[in-house]
Amino acid sequence: MAESKKKLSVSLIVGGDYHDLDYVRHRLLGYLLEVPNLRTRCFENFDDIEGICNSDYLITYTCNVVPKPEQVPHLRNFLISGKRWLALHGTNSWLTLNENKEWYTPAGHEEYFKLIGSQFAAHPPIEPYAVSVIDDDHIVSEGCDDFEVVGGDELYYMHMFDDVRVLMEATTQGEARGFAERTWNSGMTHPVLYEKAIENGAILYCTLGHRRGHWDMEPLTNYYKKEELGSWELPIFDRILRNSIKWLQEK
């Protein structure tokens, strides 16, 4: 394939709570540097929504960082215009503790999560889990086989909105201890990778990619004993990320 002479731009939003954001930002920038004509602007939140939406593509990896309700129409118009958004891991997470010290998802950002197509609700204790490829007729999942997630990643239990095209999924792995929505039906399937079309554009959501180091749980604790490396060292996750960046440029 001949190298494109057209310069393209991507907005990369990496920010929020309880994750090793430095690691994630550096890894994602490394993948983006593999596209010679792609230039990246880095953000920590959605505050500069006009600058973010002026880019050709959008990539997000956040937790407890969401746009203000009045900013959501900008993101919708970004997609309607034919652009693409790669949303990773906690992008659909908005959490706080209730009076019982359980994590729950407060109201206030419903339109944002409807736009994305999902909202994180809980996850079971971090343990290995199996992912099934149920649709391999897609640039991201093509040629991928079923795999096991090891290394300390989270299986997302989510509320789903609207129609999405599920590419990979996993089944309930037990109760979500520590969350208000603790009990989930045994055998229930949960999307791990899906695409949602929005008129001429689309969102690709991948729940994989958890990463937490020793210093990433403030103010809850100053030192988190066990590092959680997530899926970043798995060859299949490397393939998903590279294919996802190709997906951004597919149109």
What descriptive keywords fit this protein?
alpha/beta; 251 residues; 5 helices; globular
How would you describe the overall organization of this protein?
With 251 residues, the chain is of the alpha/beta class. It has one domain (8-97, 105-121, 159-169, 191-248): Rossmann fold (3-Layer(aba) Sandwich), CATH 3.40.50. Helix content is 19%, strand content 28%. It is built from five helices and 13 strands. The strands form three sheets. The chain has a nine-stranded mixed β-sheet with strand order 2-1-3-4-13-12-11-8-9, with helices on both faces. 37% of the residues are buried. The mean pLDDT is 96.
List the helices and strands and how they pair.
Elements: E1 8-16, H1 21-32, E2 38-43, H2 49-53, E3 57-63, H3 72-80, E4 84-88, E5 96-97, E6 103-104, H4 110-116, E7 118-122, E8 129-133, E9 147-149, E10 157-160, E11 165-171, E12 189-198, E13 201-206, H5 235-248
